[in-house]
Design goal:
By secondary structure, this protein is α/β, with parallel strands linked by helices. The chain has ten helices and eight strands. A five-stranded mixed sheet has the order 3-2-1-4-7, with helices on both faces. The chain has a three-stranded mixed sheet with strand order 5-8-6. The protein is globular and about 45 Å long.
Length: 226
């Protein structure tokens, strides 16, 4: 039986962060869970092409923006399931068994608990809020990963090719079809440290609220990047 999961990683100058992500995925390759790794690149100027060759990953390119990149990666995925994971995210050691059990017994899409790679009070608080939001409102963000069957992915229309909020757009279509896995996704905290934990969290919440009242992702992206 061929390995069932294609892994799609959006990359943009991620050569300095992707190593631990690939290392945590290695066990899944060895246990015939992962059939391929796809780098969905948005125009990197670093060594990501060389890394792709070195690890045997498929490299696809698209316009910059996670929505476009994730969509491009999914289009070439060969597996029956797709795992979308960011290039600065590491999964807890139990991920192979837990994801393997999920795809063998469930049809729902799934996501992971969030943790940051910095163990400070603000990091723990923001992660706890994100995990509570995910459970109460069914709104996990992309840094919590998304494991989804190709059939279910296609039935939702997939990731929209928008510059921001692509993760929220797809999980809103998955209401009632999302499961929390007993896996921790530890993600990078550089942007939070640079901007300030609560300032960045407030900015994210404000962007989400504006998206819900109908402001276009293009305008939101322009504001978000300022």
């Amino acid at each position: 039986m061929p390995a069932p999961i294609s892994v799609v990683i959006p990359t943009l100058n991620a050569a300095h962060t992707i190593g631990p992500t690939l290392a945590c995925l290695y066990e899944g390759m060895g246990q015939s869970l992962i059939c391929e790794v796809i780098f969905a690149d948005g125009g990197s100027e670093d060594s990501i092409k060389e890394i792709a060759k070195e690890v045997g990953a498929t490299l696809v390119t698209s316009p910059k923006g996670r929505g476009s990149q994730l969509s491009a990666g999914a289009k070439v995925a060969k597996g029956k399931w797709i795992l979308f994971i960011h290039a600065d995210t590491v999964l807890s050691e139990n991920w192979v068994h837990t994801m393997g059990n999920h795809i063998n017994t469930k049809t729902n899409a799934a996501y992971c608990r969030l943790k940051f790679d910095t163990d400070t009070a603000p990091a723990r608080f923001i992660a706890a809020c994100a995990n509570l939001r995910s459970r109460l409102f069914g709104l996990p963000y992309g840094d919590q990963t998304l494991l989804i069957s190709k059939n279910l992915y296609k039935s939702t229309g997939g990731y929209p090719e928008i510059p921001l909020m692509e993760d929220v757009a797809i999980v809103r279509k998955l209401r009632g079809k999302l499961t929390l896995l007993d896996i921790t996704a530890t993600t990078g905290s550089d942007r939070y440290i640079k901007d300030g934990w609560f300032k960045r969290a407030g900015k994210n919440l404000g962007t989400l609220a504006r998206y819900f009242i109908g402001i276009s992702p293009d305008k939101l992206a322009e504001r978000y990047r300022r």
